[in-house]
Each structure stands twice: as structure tokens, then as C-alpha cells.
UniProtKB/TrEMBL annotation:
The keyword Transcription applies. This is AcrR family transcriptional regulator. Residues 19-79 form the HTH tetR-type domain. Residues 42-61 bind DNA. Signal peptide: none annotated. The lineage of its organism: Bacteria, Bacillati, Actinomycetota, Actinomycetes, Micrococcales. Keywords: DNA-binding, Transcription, Transcription regulation. InterPro entries: Homeodomain-like_sf (IPR009057), HTH-type_TetR-like_transc_reg (IPR050109), HTH_TetR (IPR001647), Repressor_TetR_C (IPR004111), Tet_transcr_reg_TetR-rel_C_sf (IPR036271). It comes from the Bacteria.
Amino acid sequence: MDKDKPVNKAPAPRRRAQGLGREVILEACLRLAAGTEPDALSFRKIGRELGADPTALYRHFADKDELLLALADRVIAMGMDGYVPGTGWEDSVRDLMLRIRAGFLHYPQVATLAALRVTRQEGEREFIEAMLAALSQAGFGRREAALVYRACGDFVLAWTGFSAGLLLLGEKSAQDDEAWVRSYAQVPKGKYPLATESVEVMARVQDEENYRFALELLLGGIAARLRA
């Protein structure tokens, strides 16, 4: 054999399609979704992560939408793992809305999807049941509890989707805040006195701090409704 002649390495064997399953695919997706790479959940990248032909995914999921909804529900279920109702409704609702947010922010690629969709699967049902149980404990009737749940559910999903977008922006988010402060320093004094005085404080508020503050405002509004 000519030692100077390059040796062609055999391509890495692809995982046999029958060796794949929904669980294996979802675990691979979670690994990819934990990063900030653009379009991390394309079938091509999922297939590469699995060492399988991307078309093999269609044997387990009808399309990408079905896969992404299953993935979103898996993240909700992971967030619900270990949940125990608190001694009062406020403790329960606060815990639920913090743990679901934390779970999604670990997988920002999934959070941006979940903010706009309902999964209609087990994890989501468990979350809804726990929230409605807490609101029933608070004293809300069935319709009122449903309305309050919608407000809370949309609050956590929308805010978390926004927060995930900030994570995916990376340094650009902090750069935007700095540009915000600098731009107001150039505004003529006296034109927007309150805004120019407060912009630096507003820009320094961290996203998690902001979420928790807003959550307490929401819980306070719910409590006030109960007292009305």
C-alpha cells in the first residue's frame, strides 16, 4: 500500500431506523434545544445528532409540527416533575409559574414555540389541572377559575417566550440596553424629564427580576379580585 496515498475513511454508520423511537428522538432534540444555534431543531440537524437519516424521523412523527409539540409537552412535564401543592393557593400558583418558566428557559428553542401553541398532551394537562386546583382552593368558581387560568397561562408562556428570545439574542440584548441609555442622554433636557431620569434604572432591571416582580403584581391582582 502506498503510504503517501490518503486513506478514505468509511463514513460513520447511521443508526438503523428501527433502532430509533420517540423517546430517543426527543432526548436528542432536548440536547440540541439547550443551545442557541439558529434552527437547531431542523430535521437535518436532528438526524445528524442521532446519526440517522432525517427521513427516519417521519416513521415516529407525522411532521415537524408533531415533533415540536411533543417536545414542548416534554419540557412542561419535566417542569412539573416533583411538584407538590403549597399550603395556600398563592404558593401553588407561584411555584407552578416559576417551575414551568425555568424548564422552558433551559431549552430556549422550545420556549419560543410553546409561547404560541397548546400541546394538548399529558404534561400540559397536568399543569392545567394543578393550576385549576389551586384556583379552586382560592375560592373561584369554575368559570372564574378558567378565566384566571387563561390570564396566568398566557402570562407565563408569553413572558417566557420573550425571555427565550433574549437568550437567543445573546450579547445583542445587553447592547440594546446600553444603546437605550445612551440615546436618552442625547435627548434635550426637560423634554422627557421622567423618562430620561428613569431609563438607566429601567435598563438595569434583569429579565428574571422583572418576571418575578410582574408575577407578584399578577398574584396581588388575583387576590384583590377574591376580596372584591
